[in-house]
Amino acid sequence: MMAMRNPSTPSLDERLRAARPRVPPPPPQPARRLQQRLAAHPDNGPRGFLLALMLAMAAAAALLAWWALGGPQVYLAAQLHRLAQGVHTLARWSAYSPWILALMLLVMVGATLQAVGASWWVRRYCQNHPCLDKPQRL
Amino acid sequence: MPVSEAQFAEWVAQHYAAVYRRCYYLLGDADEADDAAQETFLRAYRARGRYDPTRAVRPWLLTIATRYCLDRLRGRARHRTARWEDAPQADPQPGPEGALLTAEDAAAVRDAVAHLPPLERTLVVLHYWEELPYEAIAAQTGLSVAAVKSRLYRARQRLARQLAETWFARSDTFTEQPQ
Predict the structure, then answer these.
(1) Which of B75, B98, B124 lies at the smallest CB-CB distance from A128?
(2) Whole-prediction pTM value?
């Protein structure tokens, strides 16, 4: 059976509307305070962009120098060799038991999830931190 | 055409009160609301190059304010819950609903709203206190109209449960007579 509401008692919607709080007056001279705030926190967008550009150029120069010195060939060969060794070892182990392969996959999936979770947490934690100049959402 | 400094100053003069009111409704604290209103205009100033002059400026500012306050509410969700203190008679017209609730009941309703999750709290404030249509709420919060309706429905259910508990507890207190 449906519960009947007493017509003399206000509904939830009416209560919510009636509970609207009174707004205290804002502090005076908002424009002046805003100017002070703008002076204290200048928009460092272009400067940040220039800094990022300079860092990227420096990194590109370092990579170029490394390439010129024969770095990538040696480095890539070493990494590929290591990877092949790892795959070979894994294959050898999984020949003993498929559970070893399953365990390895589980560890890899777990590590990925952990990395995703950590990045989510950092993003959430840092969201309102004043040290971060967040990009505009509009 | 870019927004000039003079035009922006005019925006501050014209819309500061509305932005401050929105921030106060959402955050529940006068100092925080002023800080959020300042931050809103700071962001609007930085983003003024992206302002579309064919659209009204107030909804644009209120959208920035709403999203900023929502971020702030989410950030402080685990720390504390600010409530709307009963300010001195600042609002000259309390409205026809004013007499519906006693001060204690109104405080209980506001307390329940303060304990809602940030997004539901925002939607309740925009719908019941700012009296915005669903479409405007959707535009300002970045949700779809259907999502706004379903979240509001869930918020109402949660509020009804919480208020029923509060009033039940209070009626117990009143009916118990000391021996």
Answers:
(1) B75
(2) 0.63
